[in-house]
Amino acid sequence: MTLAKLDPVELTQKLIRCPSVTPAEGGALTLLAEVLGDLGFTCQRLPFSEAGYSDVDNLYARIGKGGRLFGFAGHTDVVPVGDAAAWSVDPFAAELVDGHVIGRGAVDMKGAIACFVAAAADVLAQHGGRLDGSIGLLITGDEEAEAVNGTRKMLEWLKANGEIPDACLVGEPTSAEVLGDMVKIGRRGSMTGALTVTGTQGHTAYPQLADNPVHHLVAMLDAIVSETLDEGTEHFSPTSLQLTSIDVGNGVGNVIPARATAAFNIRFNDRHSGASLEDWLRQRLNAAIDTSRGAAYELNVRVSGESFLCPPGPLSDLVCDAAERVTGRRPELGTTGGTSDARFIKDYCPVAELGLLNATAHKVDEQVPATDLQNLHAVYRAVLEGYFSL
Q1: Is 213 exposed, middle or buried (0-12, 13-18, 19+ CB in 10 A)?
Q2: What DSSP character marks residue 29?
Q3: CATH of domain 8-187+307-387
Q4: What CATH number does the domain located at 189-305 have?
Q5: What is the pLDDT of residue 311?
Q6: What distance in Å separates the CA atoms of residue 100 and residue 303, rounded to the nearest whole number?
Q7: Are 384 and 119 in contact (CB under 8 A)?
Q8: pLDDT reported for residue 5
Q9: Is 268:229 a contact under the CB 8 Å cutoff?
Q10: Any bridge partners for residue 300, and if so which?
Q11: Which end of the chain lies in a sparser environment, N or C, as judged by fewer CB atoms within 10 Å?
Q12: CA atoms of 107 and 52, how far apart (whole Å)
C-alpha cells in the first residue's frame, strides 16, 4: 500500500480556506474526511441537535481494528474574524507571508489538526498502512461556542459504540513562548456570575426616602474581591475573580436608581468546585448587604467547566519526550489558559494537550510560522511512534 506524504503547511492552508465559523461546517470536515479516507481511515459524520442550540456537524475517523486506540481531539470551527478590514490579508485566504500562514484558525486550531493528520500519514506510510493498534480522530465543529452538540455528544456516541480511546491528545494551542514549551495536563474551572441588587428609587436630595442599590452593590463587590481565595496548588495558579461589568443604566444625575448589576468571572483551581464557590459567594454577599430597608439581591452563576487534573504519568511523559526529542527542550506541565474540550474527555480516558503558540489566537492576523507547523508535525509523529513503539 503506497500512501502519499502530506505537507502540514498546505493542509493548514486548505483548512483555513474553509470558512467554518461556529456552527458552520464550511467544508472543513468534508475536506478532512476526503484526506483521511485516502489514508485508509473509516470516517463517520456525526451531526447532533438539541433544542435551543445550533445544529452541529462532527467527524470521527478511525484506522485499525484492534489493539490500543490512540485518540486525537480537535475542532475545525473558528471564531468570527471581527473587522475584516483590519486584517492585512483576507482572513480566509491563508496566504503565506514572510514564512507565516495568516488566517482565522491557523493557530486555534486548524494548524494542529493538519499536523496530526500529516504525522499519521507518515507513520502509516512507514508501516504499509498497518499499525499494532488504532488511531482515532475526534473532530468537532462546536468548541468555540456552546460546546453542547460537539465533543460531549461525540464521547457519548463513542462510548455506546466501543470507540473510547485509551489515551487522547488535544491539539489546542498550549505553547507560550516557543513551540512545545508547555503541555497541559489539566485546566482551571470557569464560573461566570451575574449579580443584581434591587433597592428603592428616589430623589438624590432625599436619600432617607430611598434605598440606593449602588451602595449595596459596591459593598458586596468589595466583599468578594478583597479576599484572596487561595495561593494556588502544586499544578495550578491562584484562583482569580475578575469583575467584567458594572451597570446601573441611570443617565439622570439626581435620581437614585432602583437596580444595579454587575458581572464577574472566576477561574478556579482544584481547591474549589462550582458548588463550593457559589456557597462562598452567597455567604459573603449575605453578610455584606443591609436588608433592613428592603434591599435584596439575585445571583445567577454558570459553570462552563470544573477544574480538573490528569496527574503526570505515561501520557504526559510520552508527549513531553516527543516534544523534547524534536525541540531540544523539555516542556513544562501546566494548567493555565481557558477551558477546552479536554474537560469532557478526561471523564473517559487520560488526556493531555499540546499545540501551537497561543499568542495570536482569536486576534486580527492570526498566524503561525510554517516552521512551527513542520516542527509540530514532527512532534506528533514522535508521539505516535512512541505510543506504538515504532
Answers
A1: buried
A2: H
A3: 3.40.630.10
A4: 3.30.70.360
A5: 94
A6: 37
A7: yes
A8: 86
A9: yes
A10: 194
A11: N
A12: 30
Longest dimension (CA), the chain: 87
Grid coordinates belonging to 143: 468548541
Question: Where is 318: in which H helix or E strand?
Answer: helix 314-327
C-alpha cell at 159: 462510548
pLDDT reported for residue 3? 61
* Residue 19 contacts residue 26 (beta carbons within 8 Å): yes
Please report the pLDDT score of residue 1 as a whole number: 42
**Grid coordinates standing for 6?**
502530506
Q: How far is it, in rounded angstroms, from Cα 103 to Cα 87? A: 9
71 has which bridge partners?
Answer: 136, 168
Q: Which residues are catalytic?
A: 77, 143
Q: Partners of 292 in the beta sheet? A: none
The domain limits of the chain are 8-187+307-387, 189-305
Query: What DSSP assignment string belongs to 141-188?
Result: S-TTTT-SSSHHHHHHHHHHTT---SEEEE----BSSSTTSEEESEE-
pLDDT at residue 127, as a whole number: 87
Terminal alpha carbon distance of the chain:
18
By three-state DSSP, how is residue 286 classified? helix
Q: DSSP letter for 100, please.
A: E
This prediction has a pTM of 0.89
Alpha-carbon distances, residue 300 vs 244, 249, 272, 279 (angstroms): 15, 19, 18, 12
Query: How high is the pLDDT of residue 4?
Result: 67
- What is the bridge-based pairing of β-strands 332-334 and 182-184? parallel
Residue segments in the chain with a per-residue pLDDT below the cut of 70: 1-4
What SS3 state is found at 34? helix
